[in-house]
Recover the amino acids of this structure.
């Protein structure tokens, strides 16, 4: 299984803080996005936003980064701290 | 040694942080600190409160990487980064970066570098409560451009 977490505006837009998905047939972050996008139009639109950032196991990565069972994959909008 | 990174709800005191950076530290003649506070106005909006959300675990990891990079790049001694989370009102302190070094040049540069990268890489998000309601702040292109100047 892969644990997927969402933050800030994205979490509110999807009304979802976290979920788990079966890691079978998921090789990259892009695969995770594609699978979740199939849920409905809102997920499709928000997860394919050009500004969407992703992290795997707490490191910022691009969409081609590999994923495997046990990973934590995070999606969030551009950061605004400081 | 105290931790270099603190993510906390409570406020901090500049004098206490400077004292920790200086304690038993006779080699570093330079101490540079930056404090960020909540402004009362953002994009012509009267701000009343900011709420800071973060990604526990990734926040600490990303800040540790930024600090490690700063230490490779400049000859610096101690570093302290504090970032507050939760609800903050106008005038309250949000962020602190303190860096010590033998000489001021490295301390100034490393402090600015850490702050610039924190802005674009550390997973914090601000939600603004204002006279116009509640909204998540958009990232600024100028912050991204500022961080890229170091590469």
């Amino acid at each position: 299984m892969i644990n997927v977490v969402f933050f800030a505006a994205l979490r509110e837009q999807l009304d979802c803080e976290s979920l788990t998905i079966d890691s079978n047939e998921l090789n990259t972050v892009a695969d995770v996005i594609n699978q979740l996008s199939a849920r409905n139009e809102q997920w499709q639109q928000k997860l394919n936003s050009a500004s969407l950032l992703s992290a795997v196991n707490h490191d910022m990565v691009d969409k081609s980064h590999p994923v495997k069972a046990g990973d934590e994959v995070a999606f969030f909008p551009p950061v605004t701290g400081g | 040694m105290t931790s270099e990174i603190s993510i906390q709800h409570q406020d901090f005191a500049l004098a206490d942080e400077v004292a920790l950076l200086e304690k038993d530290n006779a080699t570093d003649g330079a101490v540079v600190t930056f404090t960020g506070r909540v402004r009362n106005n953002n994009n012509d909006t009267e701000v009343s409160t900011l709420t800071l959300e973060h990604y526990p675990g990734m926040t600490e990891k990303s800040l540790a990487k930024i600090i490690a990079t700063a230490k490779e790049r400049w000859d610096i001694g101690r570093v302290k980064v504090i970032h507050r989370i939760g609800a903050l009102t106008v005038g309250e302190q949000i962020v602190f970066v303190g860096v010590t070094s033998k000489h001021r040049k490295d301390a100034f540069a490393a402090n600015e570098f850490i702050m610039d990268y924190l802005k674009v890489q550390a997973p914090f998000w601000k939600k603004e409560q204002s006279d116009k309601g509640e909204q998540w702040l958009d990232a600024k292109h100028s912050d991204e451009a500022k961080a890229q100047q170091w590469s």
